[in-house]
């Protein structure tokens, strides 16, 4: 299902330049569509080349195909924003994986490194190069997509839970380091959101979706559009005094 614009227009965003990672599907795709609807010029980064090219053609966006765990790819994406679009105003770091469920003592080192590599090291590399560019320009806003699992324990998803906790620490540290430079760094913490990643997880058993729904007070999954709308707001001038914040968007799931 295609994502749709939020319906809110932020006049200050028109003509600005946005970089979105994990852009080819799920929350990343929704962010790409919503920033495009604001009149932003986009550079999209994803390792799914075919979906990336299709979305880029639809949104008239530039692309860099590759993995956020590769520093050269991340650096090339940020450099492409400057070389081809003229700068970098916004970045949404959305690339991520859930990992294969397993008890912590059954989790392999390979799986640990794979999940934390994408979810944590990938965000670190993105922040590193995005911040260099934005600090030099004296402006910019970055949003990393974390998770409600960054605030609470998540049994059988130890690498995912640990990586999302760490993203919040990175967000707070980066925000404090660059606050005086005019750059803002925040995070969005989605709850259970209907995306291809979650749907893949729910296919492991019909009881899993029921268990997830029972954990959400409002009784439904979130949508990628709802998460993207939060990221969009955090980047806008309407959130100009919001910095180092972790914005939970989860239907009251962890409000206890």
Structure commentary:
- This protein is of the alpha/beta class and 256 residues long.
- The chain has a single domain, classed as NAD(P)-binding Rossmann-like Domain (Rossmann fold, 3-Layer(aba) Sandwich).
- The chain is built from 8 helices and 9 strands.
- The protein has helices at residues 26-37, 49-59, 71-85, 109-137, 158-178, 196-202, 206-214, 224-235, and strands spanning 17-21, 41-46, 62-65, 90-93, 140-145, 183-190, 193-194, 222-223, 246-249.
- Strands 3-2-1-4-5-6-9 form a 7-stranded parallel sheet, sandwiched between helices. The chain has a two-stranded parallel sheet with strand order 7-8.
- Helix 1 (26-37) packs across helix 8 and helix 4 packs parallel to helix 5 (158-178).
- The protein is globular, with a radius of gyration of 17 Å.
Summarize this structure as a short list of keywords or feature phrases:
single chain; 256 residues; alpha/beta; Rossmann fold; seven-stranded parallel β-sheet; two-stranded parallel ribbon; globular
């Amino acid at each position: 299902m295609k994502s749709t614009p939020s319906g809110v227009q932020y006049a200050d965003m028109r003509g600005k330049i946005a970089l979105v990672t994990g852009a080819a599907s799920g929350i990343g795709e929704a962010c790409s569509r919503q920033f495009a609807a604001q009149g932003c010029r986009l550079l999209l980064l994803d390792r799914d080349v075919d979906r990336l090219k299709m979305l880029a053609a639809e949104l008239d966006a530039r692309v860099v195909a590759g993995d956020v765990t590769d520093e050269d790819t991340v650096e090339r994406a940020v450099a492409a924003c400057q070389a081809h679009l003229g700068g970098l105003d916004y970045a949404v770091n959305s690339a991520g994986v859930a990992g294969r469920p397993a008890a912590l003592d059954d989790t392999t080192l390979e799986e640990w490194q794979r999940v934390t590599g994408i979810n944590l090291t990938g965000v670190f590399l993105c922040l590193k190069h995005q911040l260099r560019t934005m600090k030099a320009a004296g402006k910019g806003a970055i949003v990393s997509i974390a998770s409600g699992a960054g605030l609470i324990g998540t049994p059988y998803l130890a690498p995912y839970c640990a990586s999302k906790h760490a993203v919040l620490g990175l967000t707070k540290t980066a925000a404090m380091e660059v606050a005086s430079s005019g750059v803002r760094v925040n995070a969005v913490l989605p709850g259970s959101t209907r995306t291809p990643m979650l749907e893949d997880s729910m296919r492991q058993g019909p009881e899993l979706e029921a268990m997830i729904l029972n954990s959400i007070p409002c009784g439904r999954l979130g949508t990628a559009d709802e998460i993207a709308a939060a990221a969009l707001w955090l980047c806008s001038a309407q959130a100009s005094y919001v910095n180092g914040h972790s914005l939970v968007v989860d239907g009251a799931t962890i409000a206890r």
